[in-house]
Design goal:
The chain has one domain. The protein contains 6 helices and 10 strands; from the N terminus they run E-E-E-E-H-E-H-E-H-E-E-E-E-H-H-H. The strands form 3 sheets. A 6-stranded mixed sheet has the order 1-9-10-5-2-6. The chain has a two-stranded antiparallel ribbon with strand order 3-4. A two-stranded antiparallel ribbon has the order 7-8.
């Protein structure tokens, strides 16, 4: 069964060493809450997330450990009207499962993938969320698939914290981001050297 294979590698438009490597489960991610974001009071709802973006692994998130506040404002908020942020642990998101009823019985499949995905214009600490490919591999009807994904979005909303004031958030420092970059370069160099020695 397919299980978020893209999580194991960096999905980047530039060289992998430019970033911080695949998103670790020990990390946290930040969801930007804009004026247009649907919410209930200080909580996210299933409609806070873009179904189309989740289908294409393109729901935008920031990696808390590697994004400073100025970078967040410049590359993620951009011209939007920020109302707050919500934070979630990556391990908690990756632990979400969806129960799917099939003719052979009910099975549980992984709900979401968190990818190190950076495209032109994104910051290096960008990540994305998307539905696990397991859902489409099960051959569900479109109606059933829509219901399952609605439940997944609700679970995702419940996993994030209450909407917080970004001014009170403890953002990554420039030094922490620089240290992460150095570790990333070292990791890529180790892989390169091992490949050369193995060849």
């Amino acid at each position: 069964m397919i299980d978020c294979l893209d999580e194991r590698t960096s999905q980047r438009w530039r060289a992998p060493w430019r970033g911080f490597g695949p998103v670790k489960s020990s990390e946290s991610v930040i969801f930007a809450v804009f004026h247009s974001t649907i919410r209930e009071g200080q909580r996210l709802t299933s409609d806070s997330f873009d179904n189309k973006h989740l289908k294409t692994n393109a729901q935008s998130l920031a990696r808390r450990r590697f994004v400073t506040r100025p970078t967040f404002d410049r590359t993620i908020v951009r011209d939007g009207v920020l109302q707050g942020i919500a934070v979630a642990n990556v391990a908690s998101i990756r632990a979400l499962v969806a129960d799917v009823k099939l003719n052979a019985g009910e099975i549980s499949v992984r709900s979401l993938c968190i990818l190190d995905r950076v495209e032109a214009g994104d910051c290096d600490g960008h990540a994305t969320a998307g539905y696990s490919e397991q859902h489409t591999a099960l051959g569900m009807s479109q109606t059933q698939l829509s219901k399952v994904r609605a439940r997944i979005r609700l679970d995702l909303a419940d996993t994030f914290s209450e909407i917080l004031n970004p001014n009170g958030h403890r953002w990554a420092t420039v030094w922490a981001v620089l240290f992460g970059r150095i570790l990333s370069v070292g990791r890529v160099l180790r892989v390169f050297v091992r490949a050369r020695l193995g060849g």
